[in-house]
Amino acid sequence: MADINTALHFMSREEEERQVKNYASQVNLPYINLASLAIAGDVLGLVNPEDAERYQTVAFARTNEAIRVATVDPTNQGLTPLLQRLQAAHPRLRVSLN
User: Fold this and answer.
1) Which residues are within 8 A (CB) of 46 and not within 5 positions of it... i.e. 6 or more apart?
2) How large a percentage of the chain has pLDDT more than 90?
3) H-helix or E-strand containing 23?
4) What does the DSSP 8-state code read for residue 34?
5) pLDDT, tens digit, for every residue of 2-27?
6) Which end of the chain is more exposed for a tag (fewer CB within 10 A), N or C?
């Protein structure tokens, strides 16, 4: 029974990921699957936990020149001030859909 439940869960996750990829192309944002990434703690800390939870947004990569963040809902109006603060510190901000 556990194998069936595992398979059903996996299939559900695959369908959800397909839907997010389609939505990403509709809103013209790159798609990123964060489940496959190892994210450094100092990078995660670029978005405080309250904002990360409120806007469902996390930083997942940083170079000397750029920061990459992923969000679930790029249309969330409250997200704009957060992205502006991040861009002030990291002018090459890149947003992806997760």
Assistant:
1) 59, 62, 67, 69, 86, 90
2) 54
3) helix 2-26
4) G
5) 677 776 666 667 888 888 889 888 99
6) N
Q: Confirm if 39 and 33 have CB atoms less than 8 A apart.
A: no
Per-residue b or e along 66-81, where b marks 16 or more CB atoms closer than 10 Å to that residue's CB? ebbbbbeebeeeebee
Please report, to the nearest 10 degrees, the dihedral formed by the alpha carbons of residues 64, 82, 55, 61 taken in order: 0
Is residue 55 exposed (0-12), middle (13-18) or buried (19+ Cβ within 10 Å)?
buried
Q: Quick one: 60 exposed, middle or buried, by C-beta within 10 A (0-12, 13-18, 19+)?
A: buried
What are the two backbone dihedrals, phi and then psi, of residue 45, each rounded to the nearest 5 degrees?
A: -70, -10
